[in-house]
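Issue 218. Parser rejects a valid record. Input:
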Amino acid sequence: MFLGGPTIVAGIVPWLLTGWQADEQARASRIIGVIVLLVGLVLVLETTARFAFHGRGTPAPWAPPERFVERGSYRFVRSPMYLGVLALIVGQALLLGREILFAWAVAAWLIFQLFLVLHEEPELRRRFGAHYEGYSRRVGRWLPRLRR
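Output the parser choked on:
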Protein backbone atom coordinates (compact mmCIF):
# COMPACT_ATOMS: atom_id res chain seq x y z
CA MET A 1 0.00 0.00 0.00
CA PHE A 2 2.78 2.44 0.87
CA LEU A 3 4.15 2.04 -2.62
CA GLY A 4 0.64 2.48 -4.04
CA GLY A 5 -1.57 5.38 -3.04
CA PRO A 6 0.84 7.58 -1.08
CA THR A 7 3.60 7.15 -3.66
CA ILE A 8 1.29 8.04 -6.53
CA VAL A 9 -0.45 10.99 -4.84
CA ALA A 10 2.56 12.46 -3.01
CA GLY A 11 5.36 11.26 -5.28
CA ILE A 12 4.52 10.59 -8.90
CA VAL A 13 1.91 13.34 -9.37
CA PRO A 14 4.13 16.05 -7.80
CA TRP A 15 7.03 14.88 -9.97
CA LEU A 16 4.84 15.02 -13.09
CA LEU A 17 3.70 18.53 -12.12
CA THR A 18 7.15 19.91 -11.30
CA GLY A 19 9.89 17.56 -12.52
CA TRP A 20 11.32 18.38 -9.06
CA GLN A 21 12.37 21.76 -10.45
CA ALA A 22 12.49 24.38 -7.69
CA ASP A 23 11.60 28.05 -7.93
CA GLU A 24 13.43 30.64 -5.89
CA GLN A 25 12.07 30.88 -2.34
CA ALA A 26 13.21 31.91 1.10
CA ARG A 27 15.41 29.59 3.12
CA ALA A 28 12.80 29.57 5.90
CA SER A 29 10.24 28.21 3.44
CA ARG A 30 12.60 25.39 2.47
CA ILE A 31 13.28 24.55 6.13
CA ILE A 32 9.57 24.51 6.97
CA GLY A 33 9.00 22.39 3.86
CA VAL A 34 11.48 19.77 5.10
CA ILE A 35 9.82 19.72 8.53
CA VAL A 36 6.34 19.32 6.99
CA LEU A 37 7.68 16.57 4.71
CA LEU A 38 9.11 14.69 7.70
CA VAL A 39 5.85 15.01 9.64
CA GLY A 40 3.97 13.65 6.63
CA LEU A 41 6.38 10.76 6.22
CA VAL A 42 6.08 9.83 9.90
CA LEU A 43 2.27 9.91 9.69
CA VAL A 44 2.15 7.73 6.57
CA LEU A 45 4.59 5.20 8.04
CA GLU A 46 2.92 5.15 11.46
CA THR A 47 -0.59 4.69 10.09
CA THR A 48 0.47 1.99 7.64
CA ALA A 49 2.25 0.12 10.44
CA ARG A 50 -0.83 0.44 12.68
CA PHE A 51 -3.00 -1.14 10.03
CA ALA A 52 -0.55 -4.02 9.64
CA PHE A 53 0.20 -4.69 13.31
CA HIS A 54 -2.98 -3.69 15.13
CA GLY A 55 -5.58 -4.05 12.40
CA ARG A 56 -4.07 -7.15 10.80
CA GLY A 57 -4.52 -5.77 7.32
CA THR A 58 -3.59 -2.91 5.04
CA PRO A 59 -5.07 0.47 4.04
CA ALA A 60 -5.77 -1.07 0.62
CA PRO A 61 -9.47 -1.73 -0.09
CA TRP A 62 -8.70 -5.28 -1.26
CA ALA A 63 -7.01 -6.23 2.06
CA PRO A 64 -8.64 -4.08 4.78
CA PRO A 65 -7.83 -4.45 8.47
CA GLU A 66 -9.67 -7.21 10.29
CA ARG A 67 -9.81 -5.16 13.48
CA PHE A 68 -10.76 -1.51 13.92
CA VAL A 69 -7.70 0.71 14.48
CA GLU A 70 -8.15 3.47 17.06
CA ARG A 71 -4.58 3.76 18.37
CA GLY A 72 -1.72 6.16 17.74
CA SER A 73 -2.60 9.10 15.53
CA TYR A 74 -6.07 7.59 15.00
CA ARG A 75 -6.89 8.67 18.57
CA PHE A 76 -6.78 12.30 17.43
CA VAL A 77 -8.17 12.33 13.87
CA ARG A 78 -9.98 9.78 11.74
CA SER A 79 -7.87 10.51 8.64
CA PRO A 80 -4.22 10.69 9.73
CA MET A 81 -2.93 8.76 6.71
CA TYR A 82 -4.59 11.21 4.35
CA LEU A 83 -3.23 14.08 6.44
CA GLY A 84 0.24 12.56 6.13
CA VAL A 85 -0.06 12.40 2.34
CA LEU A 86 -1.29 16.01 2.22
CA ALA A 87 1.63 17.06 4.44
CA LEU A 88 4.02 15.39 1.98
CA ILE A 89 2.54 17.43 -0.87
CA VAL A 90 2.53 20.72 1.07
CA GLY A 91 6.08 20.06 2.27
CA GLN A 92 7.19 19.65 -1.33
CA ALA A 93 5.35 22.84 -2.31
CA LEU A 94 7.22 24.76 0.38
CA LEU A 95 10.56 23.12 -0.36
CA LEU A 96 10.34 23.64 -4.11
CA GLY A 97 8.42 26.91 -4.02
CA ARG A 98 5.92 25.60 -6.57
CA GLU A 99 2.37 26.93 -6.30
CA ILE A 100 1.05 24.13 -8.50
CA LEU A 101 1.71 21.75 -5.61
CA PHE A 102 -0.48 23.80 -3.28
CA ALA A 103 -3.23 23.50 -5.90
CA TRP A 104 -2.61 19.74 -6.09
CA ALA A 105 -2.84 19.50 -2.28
CA VAL A 106 -6.28 21.16 -2.39
CA ALA A 107 -7.39 18.86 -5.22
CA ALA A 108 -6.08 15.79 -3.36
CA TRP A 109 -7.89 16.90 -0.18
CA LEU A 110 -11.14 17.21 -2.15
CA ILE A 111 -10.65 13.73 -3.64
CA PHE A 112 -9.91 12.31 -0.18
CA GLN A 113 -12.95 14.07 1.32
CA LEU A 114 -15.28 12.69 -1.34
CA PHE A 115 -13.82 9.19 -1.00
CA LEU A 116 -14.19 9.30 2.78
CA VAL A 117 -17.78 10.54 2.76
CA LEU A 118 -19.05 8.47 -0.16
CA HIS A 119 -17.15 5.20 0.30
CA GLU A 120 -14.81 4.70 3.22
CA GLU A 121 -16.93 5.91 6.13
CA PRO A 122 -20.11 4.09 5.01
CA GLU A 123 -18.02 0.92 4.64
CA LEU A 124 -16.55 1.37 8.14
CA ARG A 125 -20.06 1.89 9.54
CA ARG A 126 -21.18 -1.31 7.84
CA ARG A 127 -18.19 -3.34 9.05
CA PHE A 128 -17.76 -1.99 12.57
CA GLY A 129 -21.24 -0.66 13.41
CA ALA A 130 -21.70 1.01 16.78
CA HIS A 131 -17.96 0.97 17.47
CA TYR A 132 -17.30 3.18 14.45
CA GLU A 133 -20.33 5.38 15.15
CA GLY A 134 -19.03 6.14 18.65
CA TYR A 135 -15.53 6.72 17.33
CA SER A 136 -16.74 9.15 14.66
CA ARG A 137 -18.68 11.11 17.30
CA ARG A 138 -15.56 11.40 19.50
CA VAL A 139 -12.86 11.94 16.85
CA GLY A 140 -12.86 14.55 14.07
CA ARG A 141 -12.29 13.58 10.45
CA TRP A 142 -9.57 16.16 9.72
CA LEU A 143 -9.02 18.16 12.92
CA PRO A 144 -8.73 16.98 16.52
CA ARG A 145 -11.69 17.86 18.68
CA LEU A 146 -10.93 19.90 21.76
CA ARG A 147 -13.45 18.02 23.88
CA ARG A 148 -13.60 14.24 23.76
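Fixed in the parser; the record now loads. The radius of gyration is 16 Å.
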